[in-house]
Amino acid sequence: MKVVVIGTRGIPDIQGGVETHCAGLYPCLADMGVDVTLIRRKNYADALASARGLDSWQGVKLIDVPAPKRKSLEAIVHTFRAVLRARSLKPDILHIHAIGPAIMAPLARLLGMRVVMTNHGPDYDRSKWGGMARRVLRLGERFGSMAANRIIAISPLIASIVSRKYGKECVVIPNGVARPEIPACSDAILASFVLTPRKYILALGRFVPEKGFDRLIDAYASLRASGRIDRAIRLVIAGDADHEDDYSRALRRKAAGVKGVVLTGFISGDTLKALTANAALFAMPSTHEGLPIALLEAMSYGIDVATSDIPSCLLPELLPDDHYPVGSDVALAHLLAAKIDRRATPRAYDMSRYSWPAIARATLDVYRSVAPGS
Q1: pTM summary value
Q2: Which of 28, 86, 115, 247 is least surrounded by Cβ atoms within 10 Å, i.e. has the fewest?
Q3: Is 323 exposed, middle or buried (0-12, 13-18, 19+ CB in 10 A)?
Q4: Those residues with Cβ within 8 angstroms of residue 299's Cβ, 6 or more apart along the chain or in another chain
């Protein structure tokens, strides 16, 4: 079976939830004998030494297609070009990720391709988008839902949105997480950031408003100022901005003004594994998520967690006191202090339903139901 994948910035080591999803899923499908080609945005691949110039990675073929560097045009122009490139490859399945790129699903169907679309969540709820972008994303959700041969949703909540709005059935297949690994060089990695094991709170993600990192810094600063946490406890925020803007610049200024805050920039590989494995607490103060892989990865390492109570973070593997009311800075600070005092890391979570091989098998079943001759 031949599958072409579009809608992602690319793999490997490229920042983003969809990108991490694809990096976990497609090598497993390649191991199962699926011929997978993933079309990347060339500017993202060129920006990373680990991704630059690759024509394959872990059995997945890679093709780079240029995209404009403007946030408002990047995804839609790249997806249009990727659909045309995909058609020349004559795939059995075109797999489109995310509702923005799904706006091109009708074009793919007109070109004779069978389409699977994965809905990673209602991106139009993200505060980084303006009115026009939100309308385009809503249109992408509609076009993808109506044109795709099958729809995958990464959570029951997303499936219910699609069912309610478009009367379409989704196959629910969650995000996954790899087996935790602790690099042999962990001590050196932590030392490079002047960090001590179990003496820091970790947050991870892109520098966009819905991640809530500005509020996390404020909560941490208030705890330090009041003496409610040990001043040796640091706050580490790992990530960066895809496109530098007013929010990301203000976030950097805020972080620079609070002692104990560490901005690592975008990290991956052994650096990400080492920082996750040795954290005292993982914090996710988001106002919007699909099914957050960063949270799943922290749980796979047995790290205690503190998250907002948005529906996508209310995982059955977590407890009620792992959450605080979204938007309440006072409650966030209180939960961070309580978690640090409790020193609950390590914890044991049941991660069985987030196995990438199991997710790959479920995805392959979807492909088989759509492929020619099925």
Answers
A1: 0.85
A2: 247
A3: buried
A4: 177, 282, 305, 315, 317, 318, 347, 349, 351
Residue-by-residue pLDDT tens, the chain, 374 positions: 999 999 999 999 998 889 999 999 999 999 999 999 999 999 999 888 888 889 999 999 999 999 987 777 888 999 999 999 999 999 999 999 999 999 999 999 999 999 999 999 888 777 667 788 889 999 999 999 999 999 999 999 999 999 999 999 999 999 999 889 899 999 999 999 999 999 999 999 999 999 999 999 999 999 999 999 999 999 999 999 988 899 999 999 999 999 999 999 999 899 999 999 999 999 999 998 988 999 999 999 999 999 999 999 999 999 999 999 999 999 999 999 999 999 999 999 999 999 999 999 999 999 999 998 76
CB within 8 A of 5, min separation 6: which ones?
Answer: 22, 26, 36, 37, 38, 39, 95, 97
The 3-class secondary structure across 276-326, one letter per residue, is: HHCCCEEEECCCCCCCCHHHHHHHHCCCCEEEECCHHHCCCCCCHHHEECC
Q: Is the CB of residue 360 less than 8 Å from the CB of residue 29?
A: yes
CA distance 96 to 215: 34
Q: Which helix (H) or strand (E) holds 234?
A: strand 234-238
